[in-house]
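#structure-requests
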Amino acid sequence: MIALNRARHDGPANLLAEIADELRSGTSLLAELLGTASSERPSHREDLLSLEGRAMDKHLALMTQIRSVFLTPIPREDIYAISSGLNRAMEHLVAVGDLLISRSGLALPEQAHQQLEIADRQVELTASALRRLDDLDHLEEYWSQTQRLTKQANRGHREWFTSTDGTLQPGVALQHAELSSEILAAVHALRDDVATVCGSIVVRES
């Protein structure tokens, strides 16, 4: 009975980590798209959409689960906020993939790869943190690293634009802006809607 109760208690945290794992699959797919020939990118569209679908299915399963269990590892409102933040990040990652597929002929600067690497690192840290919600020191370190990575992404976003100042046609510059903004929005969603909630847990429980 104790083991069963523990499994129910840990269930929401496990689902949060599984959603974060879908995000990791998303950043891996984006890296693959960057390295794929333009003509082959459309073949990955279904993979992209299935990622978003799986993340949403797990979000819905999480909502059902936290209504049916008595104990949760953190307050229900925090679980909901984190899950919603993860799904917002996934929406932005899928948007990046859509742009890479539909604008496959767009020549991208090195900053595009660097920004995706930052997003991937942030997703990796998030997945690790959500598996250790009871470790306040780990959550605090996660929060701190996420702040640093987001500042780095903000700088990279600006560098992306300054590196192409005056060298692109307005329409092409807009495409770069949309792509860069979606990557940055994913990074911000993880900081503002996931890491910030984890930071509040540290403050409240300390």
